[in-house]
Amino acid sequence: MLKESFSKYFMNQKMMRTVIISLIPIIIGSIFFFGWRTLILLSLVTVFGVGTEYVFEKRNKKKISEAVFVTCILYTMTLPPSIPYWIAIVGIIFGVMFGKAVFGGFGRNVFNPALVARAFVYVSFPVPLTIQWSKAASGFPGGFATYITEGVEAVSQATPMLIFRNSGDMVDFKSLLIGNISGSIGETSAILIILAGVYLIYKKVASWEIMAGTLLGFLGLGSIIYFRGNTEIANPLFALVSGGFLFGTVFMATDPVSGAKTKEGKWIYGVMIGVITMIIRTYSLFTGGMMFAILISNTFVPILDEAIKGLKKHKKEIKKKKEGVAV
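The structure corresponding to this sequence follows.
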């Protein structure tokens, strides 16, 4: 009965359910690190995100996509634990409306809706998005015993990227892997994100080519800049597990709708994201860069895929002509 009611209003998208499954350990980890507020925040964002899509799809007599649940989770995981509820809600409404609905709904959006939402609140409400952070709990029961963990009051206790930008100090690698550091809700634990990436690749839901291309572009340019003696960036491995790079690589860059579709395009698209992220981190005022890098690369995807398809078609025509002349 429940299944029939669900299918009445929602599209059947098995791929999206797989992504949600991969995110469950990260959600549980976020509660452990920052408290139950993260789950409340996620619930509110999901209600308003699904509600916004319902309003638009109802007018077109279409079902709600299960992808909107993924959008809501990914968006929430990129937010600081202490962000005001109303700001998070405004962000998801904007993201679903202008990142998805205005393009015609699921499958037609050019940009990743979760990142559209994140970019909107990032530039509109910079203080709660870039200054107000929470300490990560360590040791059982951690955040399971509190609404939200204690707030960060000094730069020396801020996120790894901010600490390095302001003092040159690097958080120990073990903490970066485990995730008991200040940061966005779901972006702190490198281990959980990597395991999710392996699971998505195993299930053939996420493109390993895009992930590999992104890592190649990021580490390649990062190594060149670092080993040339630029002290403005950390060593490439630290940079790899800091900020939202890994989370963006696994979940945002591999979005099947806004990402590249052709095999060659996936590699180029991934490298582009990695390179742009490193450029932004090194030469701009932003400590991260992954969000903007993916959105910028999204704009080139249609042209990139069409160019590759056109090139392949041209090569086939040339091959046919040569074969015809040979005969």
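Residues 301-326 form the longest helix (26 residues).
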